[in-house]
Write a structure and sequence with these properties.
- With about 90 residues, this protein is of the alpha+beta class.
- It has a single domain, classed as Beta-grasp domain (Ubiquitin-like (UB roll), Roll).
- It is about 20% helix and about 30% strand.
- It is built from two helices and five strands, in the order E-H-E-H-E-E-E.
- The protein has a five-stranded mixed sheet with strand order 2-1-5-3-4.
- Strand 3 and strand 4 form a beta hairpin.
- The longest helix has 11 residues.
- The radius of gyration is 13 Å and the shape is globular.
- The N and C termini lie far apart (about 50 Å).
C-alpha cells in the first residue's frame, strides 16, 4: 500500500535552530514533497527566517542535495544557513 504521507527528521542549525528553539523536528509531509518545501514550511511558521531562504543549503542523509530533491519516508534532512563570523 502506498503511503500518502512521509515522516522526516529535520535537523536545524544556526538561525533555524534559534527561531524554532529546538535542534531537531520530526515532521510529516505529503508523499512527493521536496526538501525546499521543508524550508518553506519553517519560514511560514517563523517569517524571520525568510532572509535565509535563498542561501540555505540542503542535505539529505548527510549528502548535499538540490532544493527540488524529493524526500522519502524516514529521511534525515539538514537545513544549513550560512554561518556568520570571521
Amino acid at each position: 500500500m502506498n503511503k500518502s504521507a512521509i515522516t522526516v527528521n529535520v535537523k536545524l542549525f544556526a538561525a533555524y535552530q534559534e527561531a524554532c528553539g529546538v535542534s531537531e523536528l520530526v515532521e510529516e509531509f505529503p508523499n512527493g514533497t521536496t526538501v525546499a518545501a521543508i524550508c518553506d514550511r519553517l519560514i511560514a511558521e517563523h517569517p524571520e527566517l525568510a532572509q535565509w531562504r535563498h542561501i540555505t543549503r540542503f542535505g539529505i542523509n548527510l549528502i548535499f542535495v538540490e532544493p527540488d530533491t524529493i524526500l522519502r519516508d524516514g529521511d534525515e534532512v539538514v537545513l544549513i544557513p550560512p554561518v556568520s563570523g570571521g
